[in-house]
Amino acid sequence: MNQIQQVKDTLARAKTKADLEAVETLIDTQERFFDIKDFRKLEEAKTWLSNFVANFEKRTIMQAQAARYSRRLGLLKRSIKWNLGALVAGVLFIYIWHGTGWLRL
Q1: Greatest alpha-carbon span in the chain
Q2: What is the tens place of the pLDDT at every residue in 14-57?
Q3: The whole model's pTM is what?
Q4: Which terminus, N or C, of the chain has the lesser number of Cβ atoms within 10 Å?
Q5: Rg of the chain over CA atoms, in angstroms?
Q6: For residue 16, which phi and psi values (nearest 5 degrees)?
Q7: Is 98 exposed, middle or buried (0-12, 13-18, 19+ CB in 10 A)?
Q8: CA–CA distance, 20 with 42 (Å, rounded to integer)
Q9: Are 53 and 4 in contact (CB under 8 A)?
């Protein structure tokens, strides 16, 4: 999120094509996704890049939420499994203890 905020700040301060090329280098992608020369106006390129960063931020947030959800679900399942195992083991220990004859009432 800090990197996304850094890109947004740099993009907001961009005034020239060189500034936009610097923003493009901040975005860590395997391939160049656009060429600034393709855009007629600087504002057009800036708007496109801003939309790209906003969409990337939304995808990143959604992926983080999905990962957090799946991790919580996995922890909940593991907790239920261990607690049920402990309950069954406790009941069996009491049953065995009762069967040994140590309990005389």
Answers
A1: 95
A2: 777 777 777 777 776 544 555 566 556 777 777 877 888 888 88
A3: 0.59
A4: C
A5: 29
A6: -130, 170
A7: exposed
A8: 9
A9: yes
